[in-house]
Amino acid sequence: MSVLLGEVPGCVLAVYAHPDDPDVSCGGTLARWARLGADVHVVICTNGDKGTTDPGVDPTALAERRAQEAKAAGERLGVRHQHVLGYPDGELDNTAELRRELVGWIRRVRPDAVLCPDPTAVFFGEDYYNHRDHRSIGFAVLDALAPAAALPHYFPEEGEAHQAEVALLSGTLEPTVWIDVSATIDDKAAAVACHASQFADGPQWAAEAVRRRAEEDGRRAGVAFAEGFRRLRLVG
Ligand SMILES: [Zn+2]
């Protein structure tokens, strides 16, 4: 049974692969929680330097442009802390080094709730299958959350152990909870539209697509606009 989540975590960490991923995946939720007083941190792992079909685009310039787009989008959502780790686009792997880095973020930020992609969502109908970076970062975050960040003998140099309470996995084929984003759907659409480098059909098209998707999810949740997640309770 699906549940509409009303509670607001005090501290939130969202970890995604590409500069536009947090906004597309959970922008309405991040804006809602920021507006309601949560301390919202976003970590973007890659620099997005391969996100173009144009062979004439310089990857370094693209990475710089995408960092600016992400900054503008984060400001629109009310994200107070945004960090770009700068891994090369398309090359994320669930390695011990990446898990160490993520454990460090979890232990420094000490979030109640962590958001990341659902790495088990691979095929979306006949039209799309999930980017390898999304799958890699989803598993890496889950592995970093539990057990690694919570147990002191994993990466002791990264700080004091921390157990987040809940993980919310976006882009899931099996949502179990919903968050009402009716009050922040305009912020989400505007944040997604900031990533103009990513939309051949124009940022307005992307904003409309995001709105339609949240409207469909809203119907399932019984509200005007919603975002759906697979919830994992990490604490008893
Ligand atoms: Zn992505």
Number of helices: 6
Can you tell me the residue ranges where pLDDT is under 50 for at least 5 consecutive residues? Answer: none
Small molecules (ligands, ions, cofactors) in the structure: zinc ion
Q: Total strand count, please?
A: 10
Largest sheet: 8 strands, mixed
Mean pLDDT across the residues is: 96
- The N- and C-terminal alpha carbons lie at a distance of 20 Å
Helix content: 25-40%
What integer value in Å does the Rg equal? 17 Å
Q: How are the strands of the biggest sheet laid out side by side?
A: 1-9-10-8-5-2-3-4
Structural class: alpha/beta
In what range is the share of β-strand residues? 15-25%
- Globally, the shape reads globular
Oligomer: single chain
- Order of H and E elements: EEHEHEHEEEHEEHHE
